[in-house]
Design a protein that fits this description.
The chain has 17 helices and 39 strands. By secondary structure, the protein is of the alpha+beta class. α3 crosses α5. The termini are far apart.
């Protein structure tokens, strides 16, 4: 016992005597003088600085005392060894900046060491950090980093390299940290060699990272590729000439090439990358490809399936068995790719990537039919000389039906919610339907301001009764209000033009349907080639910011041409249209024909929100000629319309038109109705109409309806010579048919009655043909004819239908293709309507939302050609809607 106590005393004495040796001696210094300069400087800021300095520096094994001594007394204390250093501190205040001037005296130095830290008064923490680093380097005799330099970089930016270096100027030189920085720069993958050099500076060490960049790629070469085009491989590897490639880039390129070959059915493709020096700084990158061989599927079998036949399950697969129809299927595949560019497996070819992707489709199919315990096993692949046999094991499990349904919420009456969802008790359970119901409920709550609603679905299986009990747990969160609506990207369109289409305002509760409607309204303007509305959380939990990002498109079109006539000699014709005049959302059109002796023109203006109200205003002035086959119409006049938006989709208008028309260039033997029209000059007409438009876009809509009904009355009571009542209607529907394939049906009709005066000018009668009615005919080709002169005299009834399928050709440039079938006719009381007289055409076309405006080119073939008809016709249009 005494012996143990003796050893314990020895250990205690050793620890106390050698404490500083074991744990390191604390360095202590004295601040014997502080001075404050500057009238507005507050003493408490200096105290705050010193207090923070004390806390920070003690963590580094250094402490200090602030006692006021004379310089002589302080030096005596330093000489006696009471402190390792003594210091004077001056603080200078200039506006919001302070400078802390230090004079540090060390026993081994003959002259004092002067340094200063300078910065903002509200950034004391940064000043403390700088002070700690300097004091530590001086008291512990360590070196500071004065500057960091980068040398040798030619293509890699210095800022990018510095972002990977943790050592900063003002830090204590730490070789371990520099080694980590070296490794970090190497990991960038751009350098084949890096060296660190340390030189002496005026205030510390200058650290230089000397780098040698990897060679850049001068050329990318592919060898051995026979089945895949080099151009396609270049897109896949995505390595541009002049780029410095990293090992990560090369690994990704290898994976992409192999995956692409596998997608095409060439399994077992091998790729080796080599390089050749072209110059000291450039290489030729070579991809050596050994293409795999296509394997064909002999048979696909399913093992364990009872609920669904092999035929049903095979229809879910992208892969298929090889048959005599495989070449035909291959052609169909390429045609489908026009409409749906999604990758499709080649018919009959064994493709591992598509096979494993299809397993997920089978599992989803089963779960959507109540088999929620289904398990799809790994395919068993058997390769035979004449093809591959694939066996897919399936453990179906039992089919479940929907049991009890609960919706846990505290906002709506329960009946309202249960009527919205499609999941109901007794039906076969469907995972797809459940997800759709979740979205329905989410949208419903979001429409009442609960933008952050969370809906969890709890599914409990009743194995004994084969039921699934479903609980929708709804945490609606707070009602969210719109804080700010910001608009970006509109360099021309004024903010107010965009804001008036947004059905939300700052301070309003959030509404999902209003947000969706706002986006549709903005797209219907036709001013933007791309737009999106992003939601961002506000500073408060119940606030939401909306950011409307738009990319403007060209809204103006310009056309110019020339000609010659015996009267006007040389003629210049032009047409200028601007759909967003001065960025105000107004539409202006100016057309003209300038000749040596006469000038013709038309000016049209339309403001959809006159003086920022729901009223619209449109007017036109014109002095123009229009040539028909049997006469020329020379018209002067104008019109004015005032409209009103009843809702965001429904609008109406009333208007007035005045025309002074003369017919000229009549043939010698002209139809009687044309001859009578020569004496009808003045037309004054009252106009009215109503329109409904729910299309989702102005150009190339993909869904929605358009209805329009117009009425025009002209009579002596209005001061004119014409006397008629004209009614015209148009109805269109756009609907998705299959993925990106869009169907469009357009129906048009017209009715014209002359009353008792029998004064309908021939040019007010109906004619069909052209791009907006029956394509394959020129405008006016479809018309009743005078029985005596065979002149086209127009009709008092018209009807036409356009049907078309629209599909994308090159989505990146908004180029679409169209296939159409049109039919229609014009008749009057004398000729009557005969279905056998319907004129029909089929054709193809292109629609391009080009940088110069919307462009439409269509060719129509006349199915039932009659004597005098053209066999086919091209139709062209730039601008306008389609």
């Amino acid at each position: 016992m005494k012996k143990s106590l003796f050893y314990l005393l020895i250990v205690w004495a050793f620890v106390n005597l050698n404490f500083s040796f074991v744990f390191g001696k604390e360095i202590k210094f004295l601040i014997y003088s502080t001075q404050i300069l500057g009238n507005s400087f507050q003493k408490d800021i200096l105290n705050f600085y010193l207090e923070n300095l004390r806390k920070s520096i003690i963590e580094e094994g250094i402490s200090f005392e602030t006692k006021f001594f004379s310089p002589t007394e302080a030096r005596a204390l330093l000489k006696a060894g009471a402190y390792e250093a003594i210091a004077e501190l001056k603080t200078i205040n200039i506006d919001d900046k302070i400078s802390l001037e230090w004079k540090l005296i060390l026993p081994e130095r003959e002259n004092p060491y002067y340094f200063s830290v300078y910065g903002d008064k509200d950034k004391i923490d940064q000043l403390v950090k700088e002070t700690v680093n300097i004091l530590k380097s001086l008291l512990e005799k360590k070196e500071l980093v004065e500057k960091i330099r980068i040398k040798g970089n030619l293509r890699i930016g210095e800022d990018l390299i510095l972002s990977h270096i943790s050592t900063k100027p003002g830090d204590i030189l730490d070789y371990k940290k520099l080694d980590q920085d070296l490794r970090s720069i190497y990991k960038m993958g751009y350098f084949e060699n890096i060296e660190i050099k340390i030189d002496k500076g005026t205030k510390g060490a200058i650290v230089t990272f000397e780098v040698k960049e990897n060679s850049s790629v001068k050329e990318v070469v592919f060898k051995g590729n026979k089945e895949v085009k080099t151009e396609d491989l270049k897109k896949i590897v995505n390595i541009e000439e002049g780029k410095i490639v990293t090992s990560k880039d090369l690994d990704k390129a290898l994976e992409n090439i192999k995956a692409y070959y596998e997608q095409l059915g060439y399994s077992g493709t091998k790729v080796v990358i080599t390089s050749e020096k072209v110059s000291s700084a450039q290489i030729r990158l070579i991809f050596n490809i050994k293409e795999g061989k296509k394997k064909y599927i002999k048979r696909i079998e399913f093992v364990g399936n009872k609920a669904f036949s092999d035929k049903e399950l095979k229809s879910l697969l992208s892969i298929s068995e090889k048959s005599i129809f495989s070449p035909v299927k291959k052609i169909v595949k390429y045609l489908r790719a026009i409409v749906n560019p999604e990758p499709i497996a080649e018919p009959g070819v064994y493709n591992v990537a598509f096979l494993y992707r299809d397993l997920g489709k089978i599992e989803t199919f089963y779960k959507n039919h109540g088999y929620i315990d289904v398990k799809i096993g790994d395919p068993i692949i058997k390769e035979e000389p004449d093809g591959v046999i694939i066996k897919i094991p399936i453990d179906e499990g039992p089919q479940y039906k929907v049991g009890e349904i609960k919706i846990e919420q505290d906002l709506f009456p329960e009946d309202k919610l249960y009527n919205k969802i499609r999941t109901s008790s007794g039906k076969v359970f469907s995972l797809k339907t459940l997800l759709e119901d979740k979205n329905i409920l989410n949208h419903l709550f979001a429409d009442y301001g609960y933008a952050y609603v969370k809906i969890d679905t709890d599914i409990q299986k009743d194995v004994e009764h084969k039921l699934v009990n479903v609980t929708f747990k709804i945490d609606k969160g707070p009602v969210v209000y719109i804080n700010r609506i910001e608009i970006e990207g509109n360099t021309k369109t004024r903010d107010k033009v965009i804001r008036r289409q947004i059905r939300l305002a700052e301070g309003w509760p959030y509404s999902a349907s209003r947000l969706e409607d706002s986006e549709i309204r903005l797209r219907r303007l036709g001013f933007f080639k791309d737009l999106k509305i992003e939601k961002e959380k506000g500073a408060k939990e119940n606030e939401l910011n909306l950011k409307v990002k738009v990319k403007e498109m060209l809204t103006g079109t310009f056309g110019i041409g020339g000609g010659y006539s015996s009267y006007d000699k040389f003629i210049i014709m032009f047409d200028i249209t601007e759909r967003n005049f001065l960025g105000k959302g107004q539409r202006v059109n100016l057309s003209g024909r300038l000749g040596t002796r006469s000038s013709r023109y038309s000016i049209n203006f339309y403001d959809p929100y006159f003086r920022d109200t729901r009223y619209s205003l449109g007017w036109s002035l014109y002095n123009f000629e229009l040539e028909y086959d049997d006469f020329t119409k020379d018209t002067k006049g104008g019109s004015i319309r005032i409209g009103y938006d009843f809702t965001s989709l429904l609008s109406g208008y009333i208007g007035f038109r005045y025309d002074d028309t003369k017919l000229k260039d009549l043939s010698d033997n002209v139809a009687e109705i044309i001859l009578k029209s020569k004496d009808i000059n003045i037309t004054t007409a009252f106009q009215s109409g109503i329109a409904y438009d729910s299309r989702n876009r102005y150009f190339m809509p993909t869904k929605g309806w358009y209805h329009r009904l117009d009425l025009e009355y002209a009579g002596k009571i209005l001061g004119g010579e014409s006397n008629y009542l004209k009614i015209e209607g148009e109805h269109s529907v756009y609907m998705p048919i299959y993925k990106k394939l869009i169907g469009h049906i357009r129906l048009g009709y017209g009715y014209l009655t002359e009353g008792g005066a029998h004064k309908i000018p021939v040019f007010e009668r109906f004619y069909l043909g052209g791009i907006n009615s029956v394509r394959g005919y020129q405008y006016g080709d479809i018309s009743p004819k005078d029985p005596v002169t065979d002149d086209k005299i127009g009709g008092t009834r018209k009807f036409f239908v356009q049907t078309e399928a629209i599909f994308p050709l090159i989505g990146s440039i908004n180029l679409n293709g169209v296939i159409f079938f049109d039919m229609g006719n014009v008749w009057d009381k004398k000729t009557g309507f005969k279905s056998a007289d319907l004129r029909k055409s089929i054709g193809i076309g292109l629609r391009w939302l080009s940088p110069f405006g919307p462009l439409r080119i269509e060719w129509g073939y006349n199915i039932d050609k009659k004597p005098g008809d053209d066999l086919s016709n091209f139709n062209f249009q730039i601008g306008g809607q389609f």
